[in-house]
Design brief:
Layout: E1 4-7, E2 10-13, E3 16-17, H1 18-25, E4 29-33, H2 34-46, E5 53-58, H3 65-73, E6 77-80, H4 83-91, E7 99-101, H5 108-117, E8 121-124, H6 127-140, E9 144-151, E10 173-174, H7 178-187, E11 191-197, H8 208-226, E12 233-235, H9 267-279, E13 284-287, H10 291-294, E14 298-309, E15 314-318, H11 327-331, E16 337-339, E17 347-353, E18 362-370, E19 377-380, E20 401-406, E21 409-414
Parallel strand pairs: 4-20, 5-6, 5-13, 6-7, 7-8, 8-9, 9-10, 9-11, 11-12, 12-13, 15-17
Antiparallel strand pairs: 1-2, 2-3, 4-14, 14-15, 14-19, 16-19, 17-18, 20-21
The protein binds pyridoxal-5'-phosphate (PLP).
Length: 422
Amino acid sequence: MTHFRFIDDALHCEGVPVQELAEEFGTPLYVYSKQQLVENFRRIDGAFAGTDHVTCYALKANSNHTILRTLASEGAGADAVSAGEIHLALRAGFDPAKVTFAGVGKRDDEIEYALGKGIFAFNVESLQELEVINGIAGRVGVPARVALRVNPDIDASTHPYISTGLKTNKFGIDISVAVEAFRYAASLPHLRVEGIHTHIGSQILKLEPFEQTARTVVHLVRELRSAGIGIHHIDFGGGFGVTYRNALRHPLLPHEAVNPADEAPPNDAFIAAVLPVLKEAGCTLVIEPGRSIVADTGLLVTKVLYRKDNGVKKFVIVDAGMNDLIRPSLYNAYHQIVPLTLRQREADAVDVVGPVCETGDFFARERMLPEVERGEYLAVLTAGAYGIVNASHYNARLRPAEVLVNGEKVRVVGERETFDDL
Ligand SMILES: Cc1ncc(COP(=O)(O)O)c(C=O)c1O
């Protein structure tokens, strides 16, 4: 989080104190750093150093229009999982020839929509989906470019809800029957079989699962070529993990215990680890990073409403809830939480909870936090990915507003909702 830092004990996003943003725009508020966004993209994309490739940003991580426009203007492609996401990508200026369409459950109307837009490739997840796309492509008279998503049965050692490359997951076509599946796809008259797709999970912190997947995919390209099936591109997916613990360090912040296994390698290390292997295939390379581009680009600001001590536990009750950022409730995800202003004070183990009527509505449990007061603001860090996109109106709560900081400039990029939005 290089563009979020404490200057004179006040948390800043680039050149702007976050407290000023909270006071001007209210809370809950997502704050994004444009420079962090651009740097993250350039670092990942730049790691390909001269190799024919496309970095397709995975919209699911954050589909804010300004974020999309920024990435499109950097030359990014887009990875979409619905017709809605294809629509958002095109509206933001992404080139349709750089848009991939993934997902196990594409509806017929979505397939037809994508065909009409001339996207780069459908990442196909089953034999039946191949048949359906072939049928629709024949009916509308537009051949469909497809990549087959293979499930390599590789353990990405991540949370079970975001692991996708195991036989027991719903994703992709089993690697053991991949050659037959490609043969079948090649026999369908309205398909152009162009690529292999794989994506083994999200928030993966180790390089080995990626290295293993790269070797498996390149081996498959060779097998397919000997079977007479040419492969033009490898779409290697996303999943590059980020560091959530100790995103910010400061002598006035409580020390957070760290397991070295929770530390992510730098963004470009993932590419560097697999590039030599993938290059052997002589294909165009595609990746689909989401989290690694936007997670540390954003934080969520929330206000302390109440403190409560029931004799067993201490609670800090804040004005953001699981409807604003669901990751802790959904998979016990860790986000560092810091006050916007640091000063010498006692620290206590507290649960930071929201106002939603669910026990699962929490941001942290038994977390050492400086003793904060009613009315004070807290920042939930590294919240740019899978944050606002998962926000809901649960409990008839309004979704958070969003602002983007660029140097000293601040722009509202997501309006604060009103009751009319409910
Ligand atoms: C097919 C596909 N590609 C890319 C991504 C993006 O993953 P991440 O945000 O971990 O980079 C996902 C996320 O689950 C995905 O399912």
